[in-house]
Amino acid sequence: MKIFVTGASGYIGGSVANRLVADGFQVTGLTRDDGKAAALEARGIEPVIGSLDDVETLARVAQASDAVIHAADADHEASVDALLDALAGSGKLFIHTSGSSIIADDAAGTHSGQEFCEDTPFTPLPFRLPRVVMNRRVRMAGIDRSVRAVVVCPAMIYGEGRGLQPHSDQLPKLIGLSRQMGAGLYLGEGLNRYANVHIDDLVDLYLLAMERAPAASFFFAANGEMSFLEIAQHIARVIGAEGRTHSLDVEQVTAGYGLAARYGLASNSRVIAANARRLGWVPKSPSLGDWFAAQT
Q: CB-based burial of residue 182 (10 Å sphere; 0-12 exposed, 13-18 middle, 19+ buried)?
């Protein structure tokens, strides 16, 4: 079985591609970097040089593959349209990678008691409305375009990746900034909570979805949650800050780093992976707290 993975040199896509190769699949991986192409080839992944804007390349490789896992950019409309157009009528699998920030609120560091499973109604912030629309478009392809279209929506990801890029985005940036400041950082009161998932468990969900997920499926990927104050306390130990934590002003961070920082670090994103567990997903990796403990 031949699988086309976009983002094959990235954190999620690279980890998925590496696992697929280990499990005996033939994997083709999209990368923009000639240097990374050689590294992919060394890992047993057939590289395809191109960007998400190379829609003809995407369509050609997708049509030559048995399934497509899109892990490069959750918001790149042209690439999703090109891949769905290429697969229309084929019944082939298409897994699109989203993110649990679709249900993020504007809590500015305060706590919200609401949790969301895949079927809980919600109103997205304007910042994330295009991503919600994209998810619906993908799922509709599973209904009216004869594509086995699936959306996987990870929470905050932690753990060492198995591809060329070993680190995620959200936590490493917070850890790096905390090192510069000499204290574990959080925004506002830091009582906002974010669901999380280990990268290895997330990869397990992709493979399970490949095997079992029906068309139009939607899966949150989460296995626990933690407040950002608790995260800051863990980070303070990891960086040797002797437990020091420091609150940043939400408005100042927003002015300096934009809405992505505000909603990524000061919101609540509390999701429950009900559909994934019904599918048979059983996370086995260390919790975020245990993972932090292993870093010290």
A: middle
Region 10-36: mean pLDDT is 95
Cα–Cα distance measured from residue 193 to residue 177, given in angstroms and rounded to the nearest whole number = 19
261: CB partners within 8 A, 6+ apart = 253, 254
For 241-264, write each residue's pLDDT tens digit: 999 999 999 999 999 999 989 999
Contact criterion met (CB below 8 Å) for 119 and 276: no
Average pLDDT over residues 80-96: 98
What is the pLDDT at residue 75?
Answer: 95
Whether 49 maps to a domain, the answer reads yes
* Mean pLDDT, the chain, whole residue set: 96
CATH code, domain with 208: 3.40.50.720
Range of the domain at 92: 2-163+193-226+266-295
In a domain? residue 239:
no
What residues are paired with 29 via a beta bridge? 5, 47
Distance in angstroms (rounded) separating the CA atoms of residues 62 and 182: 47
Q: What is the DSSP letter of 227?
A: E
Local structure of 64: helix, strand or coil: coil
Over residues 5-16, the mean pLDDT reads 96
Residue 14 lies in a domain: yes
Beta bridge partners of 48: 30
Counted domains in the chain: 1
Percent of the chain with pLDDT over 90: 94
Q: Considering the domain boundaries, does residue 114 fall inside one? A: yes
Nearest CA among 92, 79, 80, 95 for reference residue 205: 95
